[in-house]
Write a structure and sequence with these properties.
Length: 349
């Protein structure tokens, strides 16, 4: 098939990835291309050149007169709106695609889906947002289809997207390989409040295990005021790593600590940890209970730092072979690509 994959334009699709959405887009694009599909990725500047990336027109410079308008929105909002508008207008005039897969979080690919000659599939990566809900209210055509990354996410959307296909995210098991474990627990992800690095640090200190934190810091003020004061001793921030280095670090850890402070739609860091044979200690929130069972991790009530400290110690005693097996049966990237490939064929036919 000839496929257009609309990515998030806020961050480039390249390693080290800004987050799970970018990693998912890269995995899906490369997996589909490896199966012989022609995949054009519409993504931001600086994306991985190994992808067949189609550039998106940036916002042209605005005049000083236009910038004097007191109702002008934030620059990043206007830039994204302009880029997605140009993209969708271009796809509306392109009759060569079999299917357009919207893998972004923006409202315009949903609102303008019926203008495209090809069917549009949107993957729901987050809980409902005002912009996406309003776009769905504008456009409820039969030419639009939906997938969700977990049963939990599907339930969150069921009031306006009945019965989306559930296709869970996957990781490359040949890259995320079993490691020896035994090292300090690891916390990975974007260092932002909703990902919960602070309770992870507090629980690790209470457990006496130390902690290594890794990931991008898009909110430097938050890192400086909330996270950095808690570092020191056996708790350290090791930076933002590419997948090869991150897989080695996660595989060397005794436990992966996962502490969502929001309804995590999937939790790619969980799949990455399980693939490395590293058991999970975390908060039972969002989709985590779908992925983590008692063979591969210990979950506690969200926000329970004391319980999480106990969970860190308990998870470290789990069998790493059983943890890897859980990844092989639930989190393999091949299962994800199979799911999307089958859904594409169903939609196109």
């Amino acid at each position: 098939m000839r496929l257009a994959l609309i990515a998030s334009l806020r961050y480039a699709i390249r390693q080290p990835f800004a987050g799970g959405l970018e990693a998912h887009t890269w995995q899906l694009a490369t997996g589909l291309a490896a199966r012989g599909h022609e995949v054009h990725v519409y993504a931001g500047a600086g994306s991985d050149p190994r992808l067949d990336v189609r550039g998106v027109r940036p916002l042209p410079p605005l005049s000083e007169s236009a910038r004097q308008d007191v109702s002008m929105p934030a620059d990043h909002f206007l830039a994204e709106h302009h880029s997605y508008l140009q993209l969708m207008l271009g796809l509306a005039a392109d009759t060569t695609y079999d299917l357009v897969h919207n893998n972004s979080l923006h409202y315009l690919p949903v609102a303008m889906a019926d203008a495209l000659p090809a069917p549009v599939l949107t993957t729901l990566h987050t809980p409902p947002t005002p912009w996406l809900e309003s776009a769905l209210d504008i456009n409820r055509t039969s030419g639009q289809h939906f997938a969700a990354v977990s049963d939990h996410t599907a339930r969150m959307w069921e009031h306006c997207v009945p019965a989306p296909h559930v296709i869970r995210n996957g990781v490359d098991l040949s890259l995320w390989r079993p490691g020896p474990g035994g090292g300090p627990p690891v916390w990975s992800g974007r260092v932002v409040p909703e990902k919960g690095p602070v309770p992870a640090i507090l629980a690790a200190r209470a457990a006496g295990t130390g902690l290594r934190l890794v990931g991008p810091c898009p909110d430097r003020d938050y890192f400086r005021t909330e996270v950095e004061p808690l570092l020191g001793g056996a708790v350290e921030y090791v930076g933002h790593l590419d997948h090869t280095a991150l897989a080695a670090l996660v595989g060397s850890a005794s436990v992966a600590v996962v502490t969502p402070c929001w309804d995590e739609p999937y939790g790619l860091v969980v799949a990455e940890a399980l693939a490395c044979g590293t058991p999970v200690a975390g908060f039972a929130r969002g989709a985590l209970p779908e992925i983590v069972d008692d063979t591969c991790g210990v979950l506690v009530e969200p926000g329970d730092v004391s319980g999480l400290a106990d969970a860190i110690r308990a998870a470290a005693r789990l069998d790493r072979g059983a943890v890897r097996l859980r990844a092989e049966t639930t989190c393999a990237v091949e299962r994800m690509v199979d799911g999307y490939e089958g859904l594409y064929r169903s939609v196109v036919s």
